[in-house]
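User: Hi! I have a protein structure encoded as tokens and I'd like to know what sequence might fold into it. I'm fairly new to this, so please keep things simple.
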């Protein structure tokens, strides 16, 4: 997949991975806020806000990159998705906007509990719904049910995402984001009780991620048969599944031993492998069963300009993000 269309498609997958590892954890923090009850609830609430506050706006750059590459490099696929999956895509965009606005007001009024309550509910609810729908969209793209044009396209799109397989992918996405958030939040505090709270949440969400990861092939067998064959019958299937299992086992062991930095590496690797497996099983299609990466691609001249712009932008973007993390996340990420 070293052709220009292949490189552009890889950049979309890489952006989705980076979005999951950064913005996904922000969504997971909001999901934990929705179920924040019991002792130390207020301390956990403030920790979530403090952890998300410096970086949440920056983390959305990755989903912007993915969308820009999609509509610039693969305009046919963008048109098909925006029509067939109009409702979930619109809800995802609304969820991202509402979550950001709610977080801004919620964090500002956190010291005034009555004024913060409504914003907290909106922030948490949008943090729950948005990653679920993101996963549903990925599942629908792989289902093989998005076909046709016009009203037929819209009808097939509705059937494609209101089905067991995409809904199960949505649940896996939500649980993966919550899992990442719990693991990351452990290192955002030095308070032993708060670390223990999020360690237990990380272990529970890890178990859910493992169960759903095992269930996805079962759902895909009936709901996305072509995707299922690629996922389970390719030369890379066993190595990838084995790597995912090792990452999950490593995360569980390190969480139990309270080796939190190693647990964070394993959690990030686990989520990365899940998305990598989706991308490999999807290849050579952008949208199953009719639209391949090559068929959907823009002209070679456009792809060359797009990839050159991505390369030039990366030279500015990655150092800037590193500096941001160095300033605001130095202790959590670098240990000093």
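Assistant: Happy to help. Inverse folding works backwards from shape to sequence: for each of the 336 positions I chose a residue that suits the local structure. Here it is:
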């Amino acid at each position: 997949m070293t052709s220009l269309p292949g490189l552009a498609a890889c950049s979309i997958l890489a952006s989705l991975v980076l979005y999951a590892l950064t913005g996904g954890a922000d969504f997971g923090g909001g999901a934990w806020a929705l179920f924040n009850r019991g002792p130390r609830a207020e301390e956990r609430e403030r920790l979530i806000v403090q952890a998300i506050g410096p970086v949440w706006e920056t983390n959305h750059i990755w989903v912007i990159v993915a969308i820009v590459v999609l509509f610039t490099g693969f305009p046919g696929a963008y048109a098909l998705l925006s029509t067939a999956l109009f409702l979930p895509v619109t809800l995802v965009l609304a969820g991202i906007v509402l979550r950001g606005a709610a977080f801004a007001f919620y964090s500002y009024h956190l010291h005034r509990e009555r004024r913060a309550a409504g914003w907290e509910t909106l922030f948490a609810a949008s943090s729950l719904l948005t990653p679920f729908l993101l996963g549903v969209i990925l599942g629908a793209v792989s289902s093989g049910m998005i076909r046709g044009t016009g009203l037929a396209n819209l009808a097939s799109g509705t059937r494609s995402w209101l089905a067991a397989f995409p809904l199960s992918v949505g649940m896996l996405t939500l649980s993966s984001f919550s899992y990442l958030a719990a693991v990351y939040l452990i290192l955002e505090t030095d308070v032993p009780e708060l670390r223990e709270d999020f360690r237990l949440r990380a272990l529970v969400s890890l178990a859910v991620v493992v169960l759903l990861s095992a269930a996805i092939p079962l759902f895909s067998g009936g709901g996305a048969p072509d995707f299922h064959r690629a996922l389970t019958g390719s030369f890379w299937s066993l190595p990838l599944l084995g790597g995912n299992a090792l990452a999950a086992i490593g995360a569980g062991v390190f969480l139990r031993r309270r080796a939190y930095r190693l647990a964070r590496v394993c959690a990030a690797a686990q989520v990365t492998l899940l998305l990598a497996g989706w991308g490999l099983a999807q290849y050579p299609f952008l949208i199953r069963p009719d639209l391949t990466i090559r068929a959907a691609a823009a002209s070679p001249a456009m792809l060359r300009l797009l990839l050159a712009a991505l390369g030039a932008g990366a030279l500015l973007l990655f150092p800037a993000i590193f500096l941001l993390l160095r300033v605001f996340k130095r202790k959590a990420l670098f240990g000093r």
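A useful reference point when you look it over: The mean pLDDT is 88. Feel free to ask if any position seems puzzling.
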